[in-house]
Amino acid sequence: MPIAESELILNQDGSIYHLNLKPEHLAQTVITVGDPDRVDQITKHFENIECKIRKREFHTQTGSYQGKRITVISTGIGTDNIDIVLNELDALVNIDFNTREVKNEQNSLDIIRVGTSGAIQDAIPVDSFIASELAIGFDSLLHFYDSQHVQFPEISKALTKHLNWDPKKSLPYVVSGDDKLINHMSGDLAQKGITITNVGFYGPQGRVLRLPLQDNNLNNKIASFRYLEKKITNLEMETAAIYGMSKILGHRAVSMNGIIANRATGKFSSNPKDTVERLIKYTLDKIVNYPE
What we know:
Blueprint: E1 29-33, H1 38-43, E2 48-55, E3 58-65, E4 68-74, H2 79-94, E5 95-96, E6 101-102, E7 110-119, E8 129-137, H3 153-163, E9 173-176, H4 179-185, E10 190-197, H5 218-224, E11 226-227, E12 230-231, E13 234-236, H6 239-249, E14 252-262, E15 267-268, H7 272-288
Helix pairs in contact: 2-6
């Protein structure tokens, strides 16, 4: 049955509504970044660029790095934008825009987030890298989808008990990335970790400027949580949504985090741009060596 025009919205040129992309613009491997300007920071390493398309905060470029075709797209900050980006990326490969029907054969993308993050454990050095093994969503996005089959409710239950979670907040959900991608992208320069995805940068991550917090001890409780001897390592704002949506839609995802702050020690990177640049180069080189 064709998908209604109000549900699958296409622009007059046949491109998907928010991203402004057509299926031919998209590579099998997709790098997502929060900052639209970071797209250029990645594609400056490419040998060629096929297309550059920009609409709102969504900036997309597709080209080749050492012969590997890659799409780089900015999502903007936050899980609400991830809902848009992941659904529209999936539509580009799994829905026929002419018939408006889901294709019989489904295509799986490799989705690699490259972003900055703050460590929650004092032993994690600033300027190091973390490949997220698990992600914990403090947002509510995944609860709007039939997603129980991709979640780890036993971890969520243990965490909410440990945190004495306020029931007025969304129930945290726990999802994993793609094991094969994570194992490939991690290594000596990128340790595996457990990442919390927050709904904001200030209060939700325990930062105080002028507004008091509902729980002044939240970050300390997060840092002291253990599940099967594993610790939560870092905080950011997109990974859990990327992992959850990718799992539901049948795509493979990994989140690569450049640690530019350590919330436990109060340290901040003296050169965060260099940290991001090193993470970009590390990630690109790992991608081209990923076994097909």
